[in-house]
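Holo prediction. Input below; ligand is iron/sulfur cluster.
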Amino acid sequence: MAFWEVGTGSKGYDRGTVKNWTLRDVAAHWDHSPNYDAQNAAIDSYMRRFRDSAPLCAFPKNARVLDCDCRTGNGTVFFSERYPDARFTCVAMAPTFKTRAEANFAKHGIQAPVTVMTACRLPFDDASFDVVLSYETLEHVPWPTEYIEELGRLLTGNGTLVLTTPNTLWEPVHALSAFLKFDHGEGPHRMVPRREILAAFAHAGLEVVTEKTFVLVPAGPNWLLVIGYWLEKMLPKWFLRMIALRRTFVCKKSTDLWWHKLKADVIDTHLDTACGTAVGISDGTLAYQEQNGALSIVRTSNPAPVPRAVYDACPARFCDYPALNRFVFGKEPQSWLTGTVEQAYIGHASDEALRRAGASGGVITQALIHLLEKGCIRGAVCLRMGNTDPWKAEPVVARTREEILACAQSVYSETPVNTILATLAQEEGPLAYVGLPDQVAGIRKLQQMEHPSVRHIKYVLGPYTGTQMTCEAIRSFLRSNGVRSEREITELRYRAGEWPGKLKITLKNGRVLSADKFHYNYLIPFFITRGCRQIPDFMNELTDISVGDAWSPRYEKQGGGFSVVLARSAQGKDLLESMRSAGLLTLNEIPTDEVLAMHGHMLDFKKRGSFIRNSWKGVAPEYGYRPAHIPLPRIMIEWCLWFFFTAGSTRVMRWTVEHLPLCVIGPVFTILRKSWKAASKPTKRRGLREMKFVTDDA
Ligand SMILES: Cc1cc2nc3c(=O)[nH]c(=O)nc-3n(C[C@H](O)[C@H](O)[C@H](O)COP(=O)(O)OP(=O)(O)OC[C@H]3O[C@@H](n4cnc5c(N)ncnc54)[C@H](O)[C@@H]3O)c2cc1C
Ligand code: SF4
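Structure of the complex:
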């Protein structure tokens, strides 16, 4: 760690905190404030920081206390009188503060080592302190979010943080008093808004136990101070929170830290994509609950704390694609539109029955069967419809050709495949794995962490993923057809029959409901999942092989089923080539340009749209790269889409669509979709292929 670490701002959590001062600048300011104590002696509010906060907290017996920044040591002296058995450790932001604090402690007979702060990372082990005091320091560090996280790191579970910082409203008063030389001035600082502080506490696993805002009159004649105190007693708490000077927080560090962090960073920020990773590796501490048709994660009654790996592996909030590409492929992709591609092909399974069993060309199914029959794997993780309930898909380890075949085709309703990680370590390996982009990202993160749950996974394959729907979509379709419950279903296929396939639902009474693929797509705007609008990965960029439909008039005219196949890793390419040589796959190389042309619409939806949509969120996921520029007309298109999706998610719209017959809504939707595509095409396609991206480390 560099001495006097430069305050280049927050890398991880909140780019809004970037500031350009350093700890050295802060130290220089305090080193040039020789009258610090003398000036503060005349300011009533100075000692109030300690006096006001002391009744709000209680130190445990023999508490290990960190005072950061201790300035000239007055806080430590104050609290050591209240808690003589406490053992204090101090951090000072300036060398002169260290010297003066040491002199102060010598005078009061206090043993407290003082370290000068030279970086955000403080030189103490995790969970070293029962209490951390941080008075009027947050606003001086160049990286407030990381600073709070660091204080959280140092606390023991259930430890107490006492933090005070000024209300941003008082910035002009501070500026004026510094200008008039009433006090030592604030030096380099930024007063941190309350919302940002609360988000940082949540991110650090700190629960606010008490929050109070003190001081209306910081200094002045006695009569004025008395009025100030009286007003503080009389005015309501919420009003003081708005206008008083000093925000005082007492926080407890959560004993279930990683659940707290997952909740704060992913669940409460609505970034959860329901990939299943967290639940899968949570040792039974987390589970899914369906709410209004969508899946959400809940804490189970299992008293064990949620394991740290859950937070680290979750791809929703932090998913560093450049780093994951380096981990999987040993390099970053040549194009962020397609991801790393060794070779692109158009093709299908040569076995016509297998080809027709697949969603497009049966390539994934054929690859899994080939790996199994060659003995390269002992099983394949894939998704099977109706394993337990006929209307639901469930992840399974398929161990025979028949079982793999039973898993063929696409499942368009939200299914958290990675819940299977709960049992995967005990399975016999090696295994192949098939998943959607967020699920694959979860697997790759776990592989990077060398987590035991993924130790058997040797091959990773996956479909392109444009849009997905919540479980409520099928219920709505059933209700449109006068069927009350999904329990009436005996079989459900999303891509039954000839490519591109139909939705086919067989009911207990023998009735069969079906809808052409492009007709039942009308459900998408009404039931689209949050996750597929958020993730910028369309072509399943972290797989060994990814496969999509070859949407091109040339192949659609021929029928039978064609896939666009991307070999991403050397291992993926070898596998495809060996299947081609063995006559199992019919494959023709195509240039990347053709790959882009086939899916321009969806690529734009992900590579521009996701970044626009995510930028509108309170907290945006971090992918380690982003488009260098998105033109304004494209942003306006996204506003229109936002309007459609928001309107579509309302009850009234869902009710209306349910009451329109499929023979009307299907064709009408197809016409509307085509018109929208044609109208938005010039804007969406303009500059798409030449799009530039920047990576965060660039
Ligand atoms: C939700 C979703 C959206 C898609 N969107 C597009 C798109 O916009 N454009 C496009 O070109 N292609 C899209 N695809 C891919 C396309 O539907 C085919 O899956 C792909 O072409 C592979 O065809 P195949 O015949 O080789 O696969 P198959 O041989 O049929 O094998 C498919 C494999 O994928 C697994 N699988 C199916 N659904 C899921 C799921 N939900 N989660 C995890 N695993 C699953 C199956 O278990 C099976 O092993 C999407 C697929 C899905 C699941
Ligand atoms: S790991 Fe997946 S399912 Fe779990 S919280 Fe993160 S996004 Fe949601």
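Confidence is low (pLDDT under 50) at residues 1-18. That is the main takeaway for now.
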